[in-house]
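Section 5: illustrative case.
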């Protein structure tokens, strides 16, 4: 294929005739014989019609009964194209390979099979293997329903613990709870919602769900299919299920913990019973979570569960035990006269006990700008020599406490309620009425705590003031370097947040951009196990990362290059102006020039009269994107969760529809399937 005859210089086609005879390794013979009997017989390549051998008389009779009961007319096998025949003969010989797992086979999304044919074939495969009880597809990893049932038989407590997580908090919490439950002798099936066999739900007995909320009160990406199953009109009744829900969220969002609330309400609607009440966690959730875990422990075992040992100095660095990193580099990625300020930040890992992979994020604990601290002190009428007690930090001077321990930019609802309570004006209280959410949002837009205090002056003591503030939280940044390409350091791509006539600044982005050289940067690795390069280095990858969305893809590209991955790479990048905002221009252009970057599609929105975004590049490259997907490419999206991620998804759907010849519904299913196969992955914020 593709070869040239050396003499005639004409394209050469090689034939090879071989005679194959079956050999069965010992012990595999029975399984192989059954598989042979059950599996589709693909006649030679000379015919393009698939025929199926009939199965045993008893099962055949059952199938006939089912057919009659459902009034199904048997369809003739579809006529296969040459490509379909070739693919399927390879697929079936793969299935016959000794050692292949006994799950019901499903044709991969990328298989060159027409949708109707795929449906028929998937039905055939499922039908042929549907007698298998063990190892059905989607069985939860770790502990199976079988284990749970055995545990039940042995009077042992058992529970399924499912999580859905975008940035790893719910996943980490689920792992911690699972360890505590196991310590108490409970059998735990710990599983991501995306990998859970939803059909098992009715059999689970007891279940704990831990999930964050994203978007507009939605599930995280790996919780979507589970939610779609529950939300369906014909979802099964779950009267025998006891459950507990813990939602993770952030009260600065309108839809606080909404997905956890949705799960809780829906399970109750389906007849399931609450084991304990739902917990809605704000960003600072340690204490509440510990209480909730104790409640679960008491309900399941009659006794509290053991606390995890607090991290020691030798423990790997983590969120609660961050590493203090020295700044190695802080350079502007924008050219002069740019209206953006995006930084390349490099931090030293010397002495750190940290491991990370491309796709992971770095958590950074910021400190507030001293000028902002001064302004807040002044607005609140407080003296900086006061001392305050701060949870876990002890007794601190007020100035230091405000600098290092509390959020001073986005005021939380509780802080606003406190100010409204103390203010002589009733106006803020009125704005806080539930019915005036959108007015409040509009009024707050662009305002920080200092601006609210300026509008509603209050008299307050230092301790009660800090008690009304939210504890400062780390911010996440996608890691921009591969640990294999840059040992001993880690890179970030950070857009410094600056806005408004009063020169307001984002806490962490400007801590990194303006002050990271003054003190070490407390940081930790936040693993994103869902956002990974494909295991097979030959798999093509399509990366869509406008703005700071480029960050993880720089790490992906470096890693693929160092590891010698031969799969094709296609990057979509966009910003405002090519002249000033083409981040990593030299690196990317170099990779494009030497062919490592197979395709580089650029969209600079303000370089022409009509706005141009990455979605436009996607539409233009639609036919090739479809071809790459058919070749098994992974599809990644990173960056703005608002309009970018939404518009990119709409564009991808229309590409699949147009170039795959699919209906809008099937195109949507195709994208869903890509997500289920972990080939459509997003890291959006
Ligand atoms: C998984 C993940 C990966 C991320 N990766 C990156 C990355 O690689 N690079 C990166 O730069 N960021 C990244 N982020 C975003 C980052 O975590 C921070 O949210 C961002 O830096 C802002 O934080 P801050 O502390 O500077 O601002 P904050 O102090 O948190 O203030 C931000 C707030 O300021 C207000 N605000 C901001 N701009 C305006 C405006 N123009 N007008 C009015 N109000 C405004 C808004 O209320 C906004 O919520 C990522 C986030 C996640 C979740
Ligand atoms: C882009 C984005 C959107 C979010 N939307 C919401 C939301 O609508 N409601 C909410 O309560 N929390 C929201 N959050 C906060 C997360 O749910 C919260 O940070 C949670 O701890 C994340 O947990 P995870 O790491 O398990 O995904 C959002 C966070 C991000 C980054």
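Designed sequence:
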């Amino acid at each position: 294929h593709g070869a040239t005859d050396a003499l005639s210089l004409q394209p050469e086609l090689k034939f090879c005739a071989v005679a194959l005879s079956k050999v069965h390794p010992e012990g595999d013979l029975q399984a192989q014989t059954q598989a042979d009997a059950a599996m589709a017989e693909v006649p030679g390549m000379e015919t393009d019609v698939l025929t199926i051998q009939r199965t045993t008389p008893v099962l055949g009779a059952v199938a006939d009964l089912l057919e009659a009961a459902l009034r199904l007319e048997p369809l003739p096998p579809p006529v296969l194209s040459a490509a379909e025949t070739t693919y399927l003969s390879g697929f079936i010989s793969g299935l016959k390979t000794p050692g292949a797992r006994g799950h019901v086979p499903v044709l991969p999304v990328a298989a060159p099979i027409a949708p109707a044919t795929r449906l028929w074939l998937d039905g055939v495969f499922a039908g042929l293997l549907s007698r298998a009880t063990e190892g059905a597809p989607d069985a939860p990893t770790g502990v199976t329903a079988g284990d749970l049932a055995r545990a039940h038989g042995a009077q042992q407590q058992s529970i399924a613990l499912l999580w859905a997580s975008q940035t790893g908090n719910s996943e980490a919490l689920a792992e911690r709870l699972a360890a505590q439950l196991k310590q108490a002798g409970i059998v735990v099936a710990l599983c991501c919602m995306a990998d859970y066999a939803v059909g098992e739900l009715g059999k689970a007995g007891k279940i704990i769900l831990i999930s964050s909320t994203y978007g507009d009160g939605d599930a995280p990406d790996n919780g979507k299919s589970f939610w779609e199953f529950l939300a369906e009109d014909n979802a099964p009744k779950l009267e025998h299920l006891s459950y507990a829900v813990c939602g993770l969220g952030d009260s600065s969002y309108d839809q606080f913990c909404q997905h956890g609330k949705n799960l809780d309400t829906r399970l109750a609607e389906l007849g399931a019973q609450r084991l304990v009440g739902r917990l809605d966690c704000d960003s600072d959730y340690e204490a509440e979570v510990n209480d909730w875990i104790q409640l679960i422990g008491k309900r399941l075992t009659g006794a509290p569960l053991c606390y995890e040992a607090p991290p020691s100095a030798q423990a790997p660095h983590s969120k609660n035990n961050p590493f203090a990193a020295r700044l190695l580099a802080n350079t502007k990625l924008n050219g002069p006269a740019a209206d953006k300020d995006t930084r390349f930040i490099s931090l030293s890992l010397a002495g750190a006990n940290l491991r990370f992979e491309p796709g992971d994020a770095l958590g950074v604990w910021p400190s507030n700008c001293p000028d902002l601290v001064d302004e807040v002190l002044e607005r609140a009428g407080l003296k900086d020599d006061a001392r305050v007690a701060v949870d876990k930090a002890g007794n601190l001077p007020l100035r230091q406490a405000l600098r290092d321990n509390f959020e001073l930019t986005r005021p939380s609802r509780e802080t606003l309620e406190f100010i409204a309570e103390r203010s002589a004006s009733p106006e803020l209280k009125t704005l806080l009425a539930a019915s005036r959410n959108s007015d409040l949002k509009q009024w707050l837009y662009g305002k920080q705590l200092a601006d609210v205090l300026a509008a509603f002056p209050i008299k307050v003591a230092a301790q009660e003031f800090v008690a009304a503030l939210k504890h400062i939280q780390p911010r996440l940044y996608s890691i921009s370097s591969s640990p294999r390409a840059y040992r001993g350091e880690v890179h970030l791509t950070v857009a410094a947040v600056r806005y408004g006539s009063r020169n307001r600044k984002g806490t962490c982005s400007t801590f990194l951009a303006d002050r990271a050289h003054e003190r070490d940067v407390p940081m930790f690795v936040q693993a994103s196990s869902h956002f990974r390069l494909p295991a097979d280095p030959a798999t093509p990858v399509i990366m869509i990362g406008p703005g700071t969305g480029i960050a993880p893809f720089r790490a992906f590209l470096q890693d693929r290059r160092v590891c010698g991955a031969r799969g094709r790479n296609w990057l979509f990048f966009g910003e405002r102006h090519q002249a000033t905002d083409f981040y990593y221009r030299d690196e990317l252009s170099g990779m494009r020039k030497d062919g490592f970057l197979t395709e580089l599609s650029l969209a600079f929105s303000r370089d022409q009269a009509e706005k141009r975004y990455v979605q436009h590049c996607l539409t233009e490259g639609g036919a090739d994107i479809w071809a790459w997907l058919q070749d098994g490419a992974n599809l990644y999206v990173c960056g703005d969760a608002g309009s970018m991620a939404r518009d990119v998804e709409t564009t991808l759907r229309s590409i699949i529809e147009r170039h795959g010849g699919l209906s809008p519904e099937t195109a949507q299913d195709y994208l869903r399937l890509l997500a289920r196969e972990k080939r459509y992955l997003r890291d959006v914020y």
